[in-house]
Specification:
Shape: elongated
Structural class: mainly alpha
Mean pLDDT: 79
Number of helices: 3
Number of strands: 2
């Protein structure tokens, strides 16, 4: 019985780790797409990486918070906002 319980706990841990790694893989794919296509918008990034726009929006927000991307607004409506890599050595103010 204790072996079965141990196996269940280990399986749950591995499943959780897989979900976490999937998020990191998508972050890398989103970052690579923005690096290759500066000024890309959320919908084009989502289409390129094959993910839902809401999921990609979370990835983009996380990458902005980590200081890797910057949101380019230029007075555009939210749908037309784009993203680019943050210049090396530049610091964006936290919002």
């Amino acid at each position: 019985m204790s072996t079965a319980l141990c196996l269940c706990v280990c399986a749950a841990g591995l499943f959780g780790e897989d979900l976490l790694q999937r998020g990191y893989r998508r972050d890398r794919a989103v970052l690579a797409h923005i690096a290759a296509h500066p000024g890309a918008q959320t919908h084009s990034v989502a289409r390129a990486v094959g993910a839902n726009q809401r999921v990609v929006a979370r990835n983009l927000s996380r990458l902005i918070d980590d200081g890797l991307l910057v949101l380019v607004t230029d007075g555009a409506t939210p749908r037309l906002r784009s993203y680019r890599l943050l210049a090396s050595g530049a610091r964006e103010p936290r919002r």
